[in-house]
Amino acid sequence: MTSLVIIPARMAATRLPDKPLADIAGLPMIVRVMKQAQKASNVRVVVAAGDQPIVDAIRAHGGEAVLTDPALPSGSDRIMAALRAVDPQGVHDIVINLQGDMPFVDPEVISRTVALLNDQPKADIATLVAAEHSPADRTNKDVVKAVLTTSGKALYFTRSTLFGDAPIWRHIGIYGYRRAALEAFTAAPPSPLETLEKLEQLRALEMDMNIYALVVEDAPLSVDNPADLDAAITYANTHGL
C-alpha cells in the first residue's frame, strides 16, 4: 500500500521569516523537500501548508498541497488536518511527518521509516536517530537526545545532559505514524512531560505508545536560521543541485 508523506509548512518562522519559500539555488526550500520525498519508494507526497503562497509554490512545480488553518498549534495537528482533507476514506495506513526545512533529505530514510513500521508490529510510531557529533552534544539543550533499548525502542527523549560512556543518540525529527496512532495522538492534550521538555513525542510515550527508532548515518541538513540557509545554498551550488 502506498504510504502518505505529509510535509507541514507555514510562513511564520521567527528566526527565518518566510522560510518555506527561501530560495536555494533557484528553488524554494519547500519545493526541494517535496522533490526529495517524491524519490522515496511507493509514496504519495502532500504539503500541508499554513499559507496560500506555499500552496501556490508547490502547485507551480507540479506537487500536491492542501491549505490548512494557520492557527493550528503544531506540525502534527497540521498533518492530521491535511490527512483528513486528502484521504477521508482512510486508504493510507502509514503517514510520514517530514519536516519542511530539510531540503536535501535522503529519500532512502523515508523508505526505511516506512519499512520499520511494516517490519516491527509493536511500533505505533517510527523515528530516526544518529550518533552524536561530539561530546558537546551531551550538554547542548538544543540537541534532543533519545534514550533507547538495544532493540531500538524509545524509553525517553530529553534536552538535558546525559552521562555515562554509552553512545548518545541525537534525535532527528522525522516521524512515521500508524494512522490510528496519529489520530489518537492529535486528539490528546499536551502531556506533563511534553510541556516540561517542550518535546511533542513525550506525549506519545505518556500515552503508552511504542516508538521505535531507526539509526541513520547522519542528520540531514536542517535550515533554521540565515546561517543555515547560507550553508544550504553553498551545498546546493557545490553539488550541482
UniProtKB/TrEMBL annotation:
Any one GO molecular-function label of the UniProt entry: 3-deoxy-manno-octulosonate cytidylyltransferase activity
Family annotation (Pfam families): CTP_transf_3
Annotated GO biological process: lipopolysaccharide biosynthetic process
Gene3D superfamilies, sorted: Spore Coat Polysaccharide Biosynthesis Protein SpsA, Chain A
Keyword Transferase: yes
Name of the protein in question: 3-deoxy-manno-octulosonate cytidylyltransferase
GO cellular component: cytosol
Keyword line: Lipopolysaccharide biosynthesis, Nucleotidyltransferase, Transferase
